Amino acid sequence: MLDDRKLAVLRAIVEGYVSTNEPVGSKALASRHNLGVSPATIRNDMVALEEDGYIAQPHTSAGRIPTDKGYRLFVDRLSAVRPLSAAERRAIESFLSGAVDLDEIVTRTVRLLAQLTRQVAVVQYPSLTHSTVQHIELVPLGGTRVMMVLITDTGRVEQRVVEVAEESGENITNVAVEHLRTVLNTVAGGKWLTEVPDAVADLPAQLPPEERPLAASVLSVLLESLVERHDEKVVMGGTANLAAVDFSASLRDVLEALEEHVVLMRLLGEAGDPSMLTVRIGAENSHEGLHSTSIVSAGYGVGDQALAKLGVVGPTRMDYPGTMGAVRAVARYVGEIVARQ
Amino acid sequence: MLDDRKLAVLRAIVEGYVSTNEPVGSKALASRHNLGVSPATIRNDMVALEEDGYIAQPHTSAGRIPTDKGYRLFVDRLSAVRPLSAAERRAIESFLSGAVDLDEIVTRTVRLLAQLTRQVAVVQYPSLTHSTVQHIELVPLGGTRVMMVLITDTGRVEQRVVEVAEESGENITNVAVEHLRTVLNTVAGGKWLTEVPDAVADLPAQLPPEERPLAASVLSVLLESLVERHDEKVVMGGTANLAAVDFSASLRDVLEALEEHVVLMRLLGEAGDPSMLTVRIGAENSHEGLHSTSIVSAGYGVGDQALAKLGVVGPTRMDYPGTMGAVRAVARYVGEIVARQ
DNA sequence: ATTAGCACTTAAGGACTCGGAGTGCTAGGA
DNA sequence: TCCTAGCACTCCGAGTCCTTAAGTGCTAAT
């Protein structure tokens, strides 16, 4: 059905349309992309490609543009991820290695990706799920309040203020807090976060009765902060790059979708091994407002452990090989940097 | 020079242009804003207003639109901040009070402001400058590394990994860390952050020699994290609202300016008592890309202490009374909520 | 000081034309 | 059987022209 030449034509159409942003016709194709055949032949191929739904024409007597399905085929079979130049890789390395902080790593990564791809970049914070407990700290804040700080081996810090029920407030002594801290760290230290709930389940029973209200309050907050999916934290940048593009959907819809972080999470979050590139094209995105965009994403992490994902959002009409190269490269470096922390 | 009627005309022009987004002519003015005079009279006034630079016409035979100077006069003398309705205030209250976390307060505030004003909202994190040290925690991470966590009374938590110089690495004993923690909290606890550098200056001298390398490393990181202006952290939301507006400058320029957080900080940061509303109109903004936008900002804080600022960015053609009302109201509530934490 | 009347300007929108790019189809050639 | 040349057809987009509506500035009268 699709012989080599037809595929070559499709590739040429995608590349042409991506670079010029104008529907590409048979004559232009024949002259520029020396395919060795006449425009008429190309037209015949185009008809076939159109019947199969890979390309479409905006109106009669216009050139062809790729459909979502066409881009999909292009990405899957007709293109190779374009590796970055040595200079680009050095730039990434030096730009990211200057970060002191998990926050800063994420912020810089976003800016880097946006700049590299000239699109909107999205980076998810490293997930708590694959971390272990490094330390749990309890700090009496005076009154009936205690601050709980959870530190993970991946450098993540979660803090929460714990409000202890009023009647038992007088029992918050430094001794009790210190005791609880010791016990907590003994029981939960080094455990995977997913194991913590089980590990602390029968902890209050082991404590003297007067310390139990405090322990109960702290534990409920701790468990709560584990349940909350903190990998839902994302940072976005490069929205200015959207202004240059004209979407078939309104720019407003796209911006709105991007601002709903929950949506973003779904987009990045679905499926995908770490270091695997995921490309979602046009209507493949479940969210309505993003039907005219494509999303290229990858997981990053330490070793083969996926900590989180990052990616870029751009028009379906994007430079896939280049974008994929940039996303992959950045994901790798970020993984390294996070590991180094 | 500017009698009452001319001012009334200016006000009518501003209000008309803001609501219709079209240049407003003398006839429309006379009929809608019953000023009790004929169009011809209004025209005469318009000529005077134009000579003084308060209004301009895009081209001959078009109506007038206000200039930056015109908006300025309108804001300063012709308008009153419009208070929010009771329902709106209740909505703010309930929306903000659900936040558990400083991060969440900020995030929710941004979304709230954006929704209320239908513009881009910007919220600065509470500054460290006006906080006191609640607690400093040190956690050995194994090897030559220690995590330092600084907790302030305003609920802010700063964490840093401290790398202790290699040769002295063996000296990181739990005893030394605990000792340093105790001493640090004794010396710095309850102090204003600005006082901390002085307070800890001669601390190493008081320690046994084998603990000094550790102390020196921790202190240098601590001081560094105090110097870094963490009130430079800002969160932005509602960019989708920009899509609806057409700026004289390109949308891209505006988005770019907004993404440069440093620029935002300058914009919000300059001058202004807490609870004072600042309005910067058009070219009054130092940044080129924002010459066609106005910024309404206010400080928020506990009592009369300004912790940080928040504001919105919109087209110069904005509903100033309403926007100012929303910004003021949100600033007040956020101040309260932060205090309550 | 205000108003009515009038001539003038200008952008926006609609109708029309025209050229170019591109197509589909058919018939002839390797 | 596949490719190519040629040709008639379609349709968008740019350009031109015209008209309309809104608005102005000026002058003279109240």
Number of domains of chain A: 3
Cα radius of gyration of chain A in angstroms: 26 Å
- Helix/strand class of chain A: alpha+beta
Order of helical and strand elements of chain A = HHHEEHHHEEEEHHHEHHHEEEH
Distance between the termini of chain A: 53 Å
Helix fraction bin of chain A: 40-55%
- The CATH architecture designation of the largest domain in chain A is 2-Layer Sandwich
Reported by name, the CATH topology of the largest domain in chain A is Beta-Lactamase
Could you characterize the architecture of this molecule?
Chains A, B: Belongs to the HrcA family. Chains A, B: Keywords: Repressor, Stress response, Transcription, Transcription regulation. Chains A, B: Residues 103-324 form the Heat-inducible transcription repressor HrcA C-terminal domain. Two copies of one chain form a homodimer. Helices cover 46% and strands 18% of the residues of chain A. Chain A has 341 residues and is an alpha+beta fold. The first copy, chain A, folds into three domains: 4-67, Winged helix-like DNA-binding domain superfamily/Winged helix DNA-binding domain (Arc Repressor Mutant, subunit A, Orthogonal Bundle); 86-125 and 233-340, GAF domain (Beta-Lactamase, 2-Layer Sandwich), CATH 3.30.450.40; 129-230, Enolase-like, domain 1, CATH 3.30.390.60. A five-stranded antiparallel β-sheet of chain A has the order 7-3-10-9-8, sandwiched between helices. In chain A, strands 4-5-6 form a three-stranded antiparallel β-sheet. A two-stranded antiparallel ribbon of chain A has the order 1-2. In chain A, a hairpin with a 4-residue loop joins strand 4 (133-140) and strand 5. The longest helix of chain A has 21 residues, at 320-340. The radius of gyration of chain A is 26 Å and the shape is elongated. Chain A starts with a helix and ends with a helix. The relative contact order of chain A is 0.13. Chains A and B meet through strand 4, strand 5, strand 6, helix 10 and helix 11 of A and strand 4, strand 5, strand 6, helix 10 and helix 11 of B. Chain A binds a DNA duplex (30 and 30 nucleotides) through helix 2 and helix 3.
